[in-house]
Amino acid sequence: MPVRSIRYVGLLLLIASLVAALAACGDDKPSGEAQQSNLTQTSIQYSWAHNVEFAGFYAAEQQGYYRDAGLEVRLDGGGYDESGAFIDPVQAVLDGKADFGVTGAHVLLTKRAEGAPIVAIATIYQRSPVVLIALSESGIARPQDLAGHRVSTQQANTTVGLAYEALLAAQDIDRTQIQETMRTDFTSNPLFTDEAEVLAGFVTTEGVQVRQSDPQAAFIMVSDYGIDIYSNVIFTTEDLIASQPDMVRAFLQATLKGTQWAVEQPEEAVDDFLKSTYGQPYAEDREAHLRGMQLSIPLLVPAGAQPGTMKADDWTFTHKTLLDLGLLDAPLDVEAAYTLDFLGVQE
Question: 48-76: per-residue pLDDT in tens?
Fold first, then answer.
C-alpha cells in the first residue's frame, strides 16, 4: 500500500479513536449526574447561625461522610431571618421544611407537652456550654460569690436562663441576694461597660470574647456543678423514625463521624469551616473560632464518651427542673422524648 494511503488510513483510525474517547468522556457526565441523583436529599435546621458549634455537620459534608452514606444534606443556619423573625427549628421540622433540627432538650420536652411528635436522636454538646463569666478583678470564682453582685442572665425558658436557675437551686443560693437583669445585649459588652459584674452565656462565644480582653477572667461552668441540660439535641419526627429509619441512622452516623473528625483535627476543622460558604463571613475571626472549637472539645466528646451520647439521668434532671420552675404543667414520659437506637450504644 502506498505510504500516502497508509497515512490516510492511520489518520482515519486516529480520528475514530478520538471520537471514541470523547464519547467515553461524555458518558462520564451522565454517570456522575446519575450518581448525584441517587443521593437521598435531606436537611437540618440549626438552632443558631453557622458557627463551630456545628463543626461535625460541616466536617461530615466536607470529608464526604454524607456522600459515602448516600446522602446530600442541606445545612440551614438558624437565628433570625431577614425580617427579624426567629427561625424556630421545631416548627421548621414540623412544617416539613427540614427533616432534622437542633434545639435544647428543655425546648423538646416543652414542645412534646404541647403535642409535637418530635424525638431527640443525639446531642451535640454532652456537657453544658453555659458559663457564668466574671472579670478577673471581681474576685468572683464560685456560685456562692454571686450574692451582692449584679448578674446579667436570660429568661428561664432559654438554655442559658434555665441552666442558671438550675445552678442556683442546686447550690441552695438565695436569689434575693443577687441583682439580676435580663440580657438585651448578646455580646460580652455588659461586663466591660459595668452594666453587670457577672454574665451568663456560652463559654464558646461570650467566654471566648471575654478571655480575649481578660485572659484571667473567671469561668463558673454550670456542668462542674452537675448541671448538664443538653443545649443542642439533634431531633426529628416520630414519623421519619418510623418510615425511614435507615436514612435517620445514615445521617446521624455520618454526622457523628464528622464530629469525631473535627475533635481530632480542630484547626483543620475550623479552617475548612471558614473556607466554606457557611464560614466565609467569619474568615477574619479565625483565632476566636479556633478557641471556641478548642473549648468545645470536652463538651462534644467528654473523656470516655462517644459523640452524640445522651444519658437518662440528664433527661430526668431536665424534666424535673422544668417541673420545679413551672415550665411544665404536668409530668411527661421522658423516655419517649429521646432514643439511643441510632447511636449504636447502649444506655
Answer: 899 889 999 999 999 999 999 999 999 99
Q: How far is CA 327 from the centre of its chain?
A: 24
Cα 123 from chain centre: 8
CB distance 163 to 154 below 8 Å: no
| Cα separation, 8 vs 168, whole angstroms | 92
Find out whether 318 and 128 touch, Cβ atoms under 8 Å: no
pTM of the model: 0.87
What residues does 42 pair with on adjacent strands?
Answer: 73
Q: Give all strands (DSSP E) within 129-178, no chain letters.
A: 130-134, 150-153
DSSP alpha helices (H): ranges in the chain?
3-37, 55-62, 65-68, 89-94, 105-113, 159-170, 189-192, 206-213, 238-243, 245-264, 266-275, 286-300, 312-324
Q: Characterize the bridge pairing of strands 130-134 and 198-202.
A: antiparallel
Contact 175, 149 (CB under 8 A): no
What is the C-alpha to C-alpha distance for residues 238 and 333, in angstroms, rounded to an integer? Answer: 15
Q: Which residues contact 75 (CB under 8 A, 6 or more apart)?
A: 43, 44, 46, 50, 54, 57, 58, 61, 278
SS3 of 213, please?
helix
CB 266 within 8 A of CB 293: yes
Inter-residue long-range contacts of 266-273, CB under 8 Å, 24+ positions, other chains counted: 266/290, 266/293, 266/294, 266/297, 269/52, 269/55, 269/58, 269/59, 269/293, 270/52, 270/55, 272/58, 272/59, 272/62, 273/50, 273/52, 273/55, 273/58
Contacts of 5 (CB under 8 A, 6+ apart): none
Which residues, 6 or more positions from 182, have their beta carbon under 8 angstroms from its beta carbon?
Answer: 152, 153, 154, 155
Residues with Cβ < 8 Å from 34, sequence gap 6 or more? none
pLDDT in tens, 137-146: 999 999 999 9
